[in-house]
Design a protein that fits this description.
alpha+beta; Sulfate adenylyltransferase
Length: 108
């Protein structure tokens, strides 16, 4: 199963269905279907979601695409992304991964 590491502070929002996307830069390709988020500090802590679609776009377009332009001004978005990717820029092409809440994942 495809998987991505995630910082521990974000896992509660994923589990609660409040976090339905992730922004990635220069990481492995993710495709629609089941995906395992793995706690970056504890590999035994994970949650399965279902990726619905994946988009590529400049980082500068992400906030508007998600309807969060007021919450994520460019400087704040860039600062937050640089915590994970120190050399990212606003014109860097990122991958925006959309997924359903974990409760919506049904294993067949």
């Amino acid at each position: 199963m495809q998987n991505l590491k995630i910082v521990p502070r974000l896992l509660p929002d994923v589990r609660a269905g409040k976090k339905l996307h992730t922004i990635r830069w220069r990481e492995r390709e993710i495709v629609p279907g089941p995906m395992l988020y793995v706690n970056a500090q504890d590999a035994f802590d994970s949650v399965i979601v279902c990726v619905t679609h994946v988009e590529k776009m400049p980082l500068s377009d992400v906030a508007a695409r998600l309807g969060k332009s007021a919450k994520w001004p460019d400087a704040e978005l860039l600062e937050g992304m640089r915590e994970h990717y120190p050399s990212i820029e606003m014109d860097s092409e990122v991958t925006l991964i959309h997924h359903l809440p974990p409760a919506a994942y049904v294993q067949s």
